[in-house]
Amino acid sequence: MTDRSPSGTRRASAGAGPGTEIPGPGISPAGASPGVRTLPESRGDRQAAGLAAERVSWGTDGRLILDGVDLAAPAAAVTGLLGPNGSGKSTLLRAIAGIRPPDDGGVVFDGDDLLRLGRRARARTLALVEQDAGTDLPITVHDAVLLGRIPHRSLLAGPSDADRETADRALERAGAADLAERDVATLSGGERQRVHLARALAQTPRLLLLDEPTNHLDIAAQLHTMRVLRGLAESGVTVLAALHDLNLAAASCDQVVLIADGRVVAAGPTSQVLVPDIIGPAYGVACDVLPHPRTGRPVLAFAPAQEPAH
Ligand SMILES: Nc1ncnc2c1ncn2[C@@H]1O[C@H](COP(=O)(O)OP(=O)(O)OP(=O)(O)O)[C@@H](O)[C@H]1O
């Protein structure tokens, strides 16, 4: 049973308070939670191309983890999914991917009900790069990436030359070509992360979901990964990535959705959500925003929240 009472699950102070509610794209007024702050620029109807999660709820052990989440991720854009630890980002990505289907709500992608697609059709449509997805299979990186082609071929057929070429290109694009002959089990955390991305790329999804894709990566590899995501978006892919690094989000995302305690706190263009009066309360920190000296995009600087004076 899912406890839908507010008292069981929510922190008192996360996010914008009541009175800031403004409906936006994919955020139907009926489904919006109190405290949802969706920016006026994103107001409008749900876009036909791209992803729309509608009033998605999921709970376990009497605890509501996702509480009527509405999220729109347009096609040909990178959408960042932000929120403090335990806010429900991974759970939401798994719900959208159908790995842990929601108890309530729907997930529509390019006009199709994603949750009604069969496994194979879904695997041809979307790929999910999970956080710290481990694999101890005794196989090479190249063969692991080739597994991404399985949804695209008949069940009895082995990989074709075209499949191998796609896997090679995916390895190249993910910056993992030099790892191709390595045994997956011997890879470092950052090397594994690149291989997971390569496998997802080999799947040639139209919807790419990523849970902390820059985990374990050094700064150059982080920037490379975000460039790959931007390149995918430019070629029409819908990209939704859970990110902890708000500066990477600021540098790379077209728009962001901020959740706390399983509810949307704010959603809209990156530069309008990554502002002190939204980020500070959501994460419980003091936050300043400066222009990036090279790009002009927002750079966030953090400090511990001020203790209230006694
Ligand atoms: N299967 C489960 N059983 C019980 N609790 C769960 C389960 N899955 C998730 N949770 C809880 O749901 C909450 C949200 O978890 P989730 O992993 O989605 O958060 P997150 O935003 O991805 O966190 P992080 O940033 O730390 O990775 C957490 O409190 C977690 O403990």
TrEMBL record:
Gene3D superfamilies: P-loop containing nucleotide triphosphate hydrolases. This is Iron complex transport system ATP-binding protein. InterPro entries: AAA+_ATPase, ABC_transporter-like_ATP-bd, P-loop_NTPase. It comes from Myceligenerans xiligouense. Residues 1-48 are annotated as: Disordered. It holds the Pfam family ABC_tran. GO terms for molecular function: ATP binding; ATP hydrolysis activity. Residues 22-35 have a biased composition (Low complexity). Keywords: ATP-binding, Nucleotide-binding, Translocase, Transport. Residues 51-286 form the ABC transporter domain. Residues 1-10 have a biased composition (Polar residues).
